[in-house]
Automatic annotation (TrEMBL):
Name of the featured protein: TRAP transporter solute receptor, TAXI family
Cross-referenced Pfam families: NMT1_3
NCBIfam families noted in UniProt: TRAP_TAXI
Keyword annotations from UniProtKB, A to Z: Signal
Length: 325
């Protein structure tokens, strides 16, 4: 019996090796890099997780690289300095339109969609003692923390609040630092765009009473009509301070690939990540929504042909006009 089991395992390993050997490896890179974000952030942890999986499954050495986040990742992948990267769809659209601050006027059209990652919710936090319980109650000229300069939050949240008619003083910094400033009374609110639960918010509610402020349906409608975001609800229990869904908006994050990478390499990379969600979730909890059915959240960023082929073979329906030629 032991001999049979060993033989079965050998056959399985051999079959897997034969399958990978069957892939056309023409033009495959000797190694690869994944542009992520700041060390300790969600992007770095998530990017490290899938870089390791792709490396193991393809046999190509690779790893995560610390970057300035979505905008810089679009630039690095467009130029080919990084093979892969991660971005939110807002910065992706702006980069395609030549509005990336790294290279103003240059349409970054050589970064292709690879696979859906997860949503980044936009949420507002205030101290209970401030009396602020809604967006409308945020006073004119309020001091608002918008996160690190150039981040997705800093890029879009100020515009969203301006769309809702607010005037404010803009402050930047790391999330933990801004949370501390809020607690010390140096800020009126902090506008977070980060995966929920945001550690800085969880820490705040341990130390003081806070309000997680939701958008009204009308505010939601205004924002989704003006920006590349979708309706979202922060679930009860995400924070101790909420016991009912909190109305918000979110922006999808997508992995991207340099469009010139071989189709077969990107196909195998996508297959490694999307083919075993349990493995991805084990590597990073944020991967719970890294599922094939979310391919349709991208409606404008051209897909890499290798990625499009994998999704269309696995229940997707990516049309030819949205596939990079």
């Amino acid at each position: 019996m032991k001999i049979i089991k060993t033989l079965g395992l050998s056959v399985a390993v051999a079959a897997a090796s034969t399958s990978l050997m069957a892939a056309d490896k023409t033009g495959w890179p000797e190694s690869f890099t994944v542009g992520t974000g700041s060390q300790g952030g969600a992007y770095f942890g998530y990017g490290t997780a899938w870089a390791n999986i792709v490396s193991e499954e393809t046999g190509v050495p690779g790893g995560a690289e610390v970057t300035g986040g979505p905008m810089q990742n679009m630039a690095l992948v467009h130029t080919g300095d990084n093979h892969f990267g991660m971005t939110t769809l807002g910065p992706a659209r702006e980069s395609m339109e030549g509005k990336n601050a790294i290279a103003p006027g240059l349409p970054m059209d050589n970064a292709c969609a690879m696979f859906p990652m997860y949503q980044t919710p936009f949420s507002i936090t205030a101290l209970t003692s401030s009396g602020i319980t809604s967006v409308a109650e945020i006073p004119a000229g309020a001091k608002i923390g918008f996160g690190p300069a150039g981040s997705t939050s800093d890029t879009y949240f100020p515009r969203m609040l301006e769309e809702l008619g607010l005037t404010f003083e803009r402050r930047n910094g790391g999330w933990s630092d801004l949370g501390g400033q809020l607690q010390d009374g140096l800020l009126d609110v902090v506008a977070f765009a980060a995966g929920v639960p945001v550690p800085a918010v969880s820490q705040l509610e341990v130390q003081t009473d806070i309000n997680i402020i939701e958008f009204t349906e009308e505010e939601q409608k205004k924002i989704t009509g003006a920006f590349p975001v979708t309706n979202y609800e922060i679930a009860p229990g995400a924070y101790k301070s909420i016991d009912a869904p909190v109305r918000s908006v979110s922006m999808w994050n997508f992995a991207i690939a340099n469009c010139d990478l071989p189709e077969s390499f990107v196909y195998e990379a996508v297959k490694a990540v999307m083919g075993d969600n349990a493995r991805m979730v084990q590597a990073h909890k944020g991967a719970r929504t890294t599922l094939p059915e979310h391919w349709d959240k991208n409606t404008f960023l051209p897909w890499h042909p290798g990625a499009a082929r994998w999704f269309n073979e696995n229940g997707g329906n990516i049309q030819a006009e949205l596939i990079h030629q």
